[in-house]
Amino acid sequence: MKRVFNFSAGPSMLPLEVLKKAGAEITDANGTGQSVMEMSHRSKDYKPIIEKTETLLRELMNIPANYRVLFLQGGASLQFAMIPLNLAGVENGAPHKKAIYVDTGVWADKAIKEAAKYVDVDVVASSRNKGYVVIPDAPPPPQGAALYHITLNNTIVGTKWDKLPETGNVPLVADASSCILSEPLDVAKFGAIYAGAQKNLGPAGTTVVIIREDLVGNAPSWTPTMLRYDIHAKEGSMYNTPPCYSIYIIGLVLEWVKEQGGVETIAKRNREKAGLLYDYLDNSKTFLSPIEKASRSLMNIPFVYRSVSEDKKPDLEKRFVQEAAKEGLVNLAGHRLVGGMRASIYNAMPIEGVQALIDFMERFEKEIKDN
After folding, report:
1. Could you tell me which residues are beta bridge partners of residue 71?
2. Are 275 and 216 part of one and the same domain?
3. Which of 142-156, 204-218, 258-272, 305-319 has the weakest average pLDDT?
């Protein structure tokens, strides 16, 4: 069976070159006579793998020396608790610092609700009343706030921050799960960035956390050991057994990004891919993008029918997804909470995949028009 174009929002497609290299090394990695899946994380064979992965990430993202890079488990969802606990958690009797959040979609809302279990949360802006189709104007934080949290790219609704909020001395924290390495990012503007690997970095199982050193070591004493950044930083992400194989694949993906010409080259390609699809949607008589142009994501592009009655939409959406799959264009169904269709075109999606989708959509338009 030939490879399909996988438009899944995550876990997503990986570069073919990475898969081939991993396949070639599946039983003998780096001449060790064993798979990375079999290696002890404490061994001399594994240490160079995790060190190389961190070095490559630092190089590609231009991460300043005063930031720690952690490879953690639990997904980005665990960071919804770790961020407020480590940056805004307080001991009994200590004055509370506000944790500032901006609500731009489902994952931002989940982060807000989780943080509210541990700290005082203030939601200073939201686009909920607009169906999350736009990034709202975000006011500056109050002086003395503990953190200012945003979701850089909203996977479900397909929006992204084009201009970062001004937060002054308050650490800006970002969930970058679905846009990390998609375009250059000035790490120095953030106190912390976290990203689940299963979009642009590698397979599910690892979350990368990039955090400024002065924000490490501030968790309350009652914070569970596995939720403390200082513990993981002190142990080089190996306080317990890390997701060894996932980190190894991340390293291969980072090598691939470097071979492509780095993040600038990847960004140029991503803008070209997204531009093709948005141009088609904006001129289509059948489909449209519901997202305001200034807030459109480069990675996740939802689309809906322009003028179809509500009772016909479910059947037409199902038909579109099924017929696309027959042509090797898979995982195009929109998220269950919003419906419609969605094309996730992460770094590994070649421009040929986007063009194949557009060609199919043109044929599909004609087909339903003729019928």
Report:
1. 208
2. no
3. 305-319
Task: Please report which helix (H) or strand (E) contains residue 287, including its range.
Answer: strand 287-288
In the chain, the number of structural domains is 2
CATH code of residue 312 = 3.90.1150.10
192 lies in the same domain as 340: no
Q: Which domain holds residue 256?
A: 16-260
327-366 pLDDT, tens digit each: 999 999 999 888 899 999 999 999 999 999 999 999 999 8
CB 341 within 8 A of CB 302: yes
- In the structure encoding, which two tokens stand for residue 312, read together? 């016909």
> What are the residue numbers of the active site?
107, 175, 199
Sequence-ordered alpha helix ranges (H) in 261-347: 263-283, 313-326
> 307 vs 152, which has greater pLDDT?
152
The pTM of the whole model exceeds 0.85: yes
229, 260, 291 — which closes off a domain?
260
Do 156 and 231 belong together in one domain? yes
The b-or-e profile of 90-110 (16+ CB within 10 A means b, else e) is beeeeeebbbbbbbbbbbbbe
What tens digit of pLDDT does each residue of 246-305 get?
A: 999 999 999 999 999 999 999 999 999 999 999 999 999 999 999 999 999 999 999 999
Indicate whether 206 and 332 sit together in one domain.
Answer: no
Whether 74 contacts 229, CB under 8 Å: no
- Burial call 165-183: b when 16+ CB within 10 Å, e when fewer: bebeebbbbbbbbbbbbbb
Burial class (CB in 10 A: 0-12, 13-18, 19+), 368: middle
Q: How far apart are CA 131 and CA 75, in angstroms?
A: 26
Which CATH number belongs to the domain containing residue 71 in this structure?
A: 3.40.640.10
